[in-house]
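Translate sequence into structure tokens.
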Amino acid sequence: MRATIFEAPGKISVVDRTTPTPGPGEVRLRVAAASLCNSDVRVYRGEKYALPGVVPGHEIAGVVDALGEGVTSVKEGTRVVVCPIVTCGHCRFCIVGRQNRCAERKTLGYDLDGGFAEYLLVPAQLVRSGHVLPVSDSLPLDIAALTEPAACTLSSLDLMQISAGSSLAIVGAGPMGLLHVIMAKAAGVSPIIVSEPVAERRAIAKRWGADLVLDPATDNVVAAVKDATGGYGADAVALTVGAHALVAPTIDIVRKQGVINMFAGFPPNQTVPFDPNLVHYGEIALTGSQNATLDQYRRTIAMLANVPHIDEVVTNRYDIEHGPEAYTSRLAMDGLKSLVQFAGVDEA
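Result follows.
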């Protein structure tokens, strides 16, 4: 089979690999599509670790095409998405259903081979944990590949405890910021306020449902957010870009007793100076979110067909031979999500 591999920071290659055969408890997936995450770009930049020689890609959809001995939870021919977290199943986080915080977790695309290959061998523990989830025949698998980032977005919205009628400020309108826009819009959140320096992305945010779009280079973001929220500030703020200099300014646009979620991952060894009294006297919750629970994956699968503009999130598509170009386009901020897609699998 053909596979894209991560060799070292700055080096991604396409190579021949032996097509895997599933062992006991394992499942082989014929990959239909795998989208590129900003975390993958951070690995490429050397800001985050991945095992040299690993196949990247943790945002995966495909068709089950071979079962290992003893597998009964899925059948051959089933269209599925994968929650890429391989868990221990017995730590305190796993026990309470927070598998994304597993103390011994391994993740496809970083520690184990992921979806940027024609076939994916799904580990037995992942299969046993219910992390291979069926999707409806009506949901195209290229859209289903967005389940993982969309579930991460749902996790963010859940953590910020916002719902219909809540106000949300989103700092950054990259792919994940825009996923926050459309999923919050689908949940009835209003107003949705976006701060983004790139004009093209501001236009997309407005078209996709943001109520107010601001250019931080020219607009008074604090005054505009306060004006849009009756003078209080936003109920919640999602920081969706990994720039440490933007953390402190979020405190100025959240209301008292509001929530700030540092959704993005940041380069290592960053420090953030801010006045802790603003958090103390404002009773502000400052938190972060990463990945999602299995329940949030299930809920996301149910939502995807009903989220407007979800089919527009992927703007760059590549076959496996051009997989490294998915990284090039993201590094150049060319479009939104990049996807490696395999022709014909969705008709399997």
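Note: The chain has a mean pLDDT of 95.
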